[in-house]
Write a structure and sequence with these properties.
alpha+beta; Translation Initiation Factor IF3; Alpha-Beta Plaits; 2 domains; five-stranded antiparallel beta sheet; three-stranded antiparallel beta sheet; 8 strands; about 35% helix
Length: about 230
């Protein structure tokens, strides 16, 4: 008897629930927004490496070369907040064939250059003052947040346009959005990697040099949207 009562209660509950649920006509679409912009600043990660048999002398030489690099940066009137030391190391290395130690000192500095017209001057000056390794060069935009917002708006417009295209042949209209899902991937500036060891850069005073092709940055936003149909 108890089992019969429980069954009837469950049955009436399911019937009541099924009467309450109403299917809402809707359409699910995706949208994409893309913006291409020219970068207006660049981050340079560069290092001074020195080697020798005496740790103290190796470190001293490394410090002197990095001091010259920092003086160069200051002479170009870069704000103090736009450059910083990233890594400092002094490591022993043992040559098993010659059975003796050598030492490798390294200092890495990161520079944010907001005036791209100074790029060639800065890069040439860095090498002349002792930089012998360029780890990467990353072109960026100072207005990234604004452009990401613009890309998201374009993605929403694209989604709504797609929905209107689909339902136009059905004699229906696109209503309110019920669910919005951001599918955008996090934006990471793509670095240009390179290595410069024991380089000598000679300036040609007779003609300006151009060693940089910055191209464009592409910012993309992706969204999924569910719209009610009217």
């Amino acid at each position: 008897m108890k089992k019969s009562i429980v069954f009837l209660v469950c049955l009436f509950t399911m019937i009541g629930y099924s009467q309450e649920v109403k299917l809402i006509p809707q359409i699910n679409v995706s949208g994409e927004g893309k913006i291409k912009i020219a970068p207006d600043q660049v981050t340079i990660v560069a290092a001074v490496e020195t080697k020798g048999t005496n740790a103290k002398d190796v470190k001293k030489q490394n410090d002197q070369q990095m001091e010259a690099v920092i003086k160069l940066i200051k002479s170009m009137n870069l704000p103090a907040a736009d450059y910083k030391t990233k890594r400092v190391s002094l490591n022993p290395q043992y040559d098993y064939e010659k059975k003796k130690h050598t030492y490798n000192a390294s200092q890495t500095i990161e520079i944010l250059l907001k005036d791209l017209s100074k790029y060639d001057e800065l890069m040439e000056g860095l090498v002349n003052q002792g930089i012998n390794r360029i780890d990467n060069v990353t072109f960026q935009s100072s207005k990234l947040a604004q452009y990401q917002s613009d890309a998201r708006k374009l993605a929403m417009k694209d989604a709504k346009m797609k929905a209107e295209d689909y339902v136009s042949v059905l004699g229906q209209k696109v209503g309110l959005a019920t669910v919005i899902t951001d599918n955008s991937q996090s934006y990471y500036p793509q670095p240009v990697y390179g290595a410069m060891r024991n380089m000598e850069m000679k300036a040609d005073s007779s003609a300006p040099r151009e060693t940089m092709a910055v191209g464009e940055i592409e910012i993309t936003a992706n969204v999924s949207v569910s719209f009610k149909l009217e």
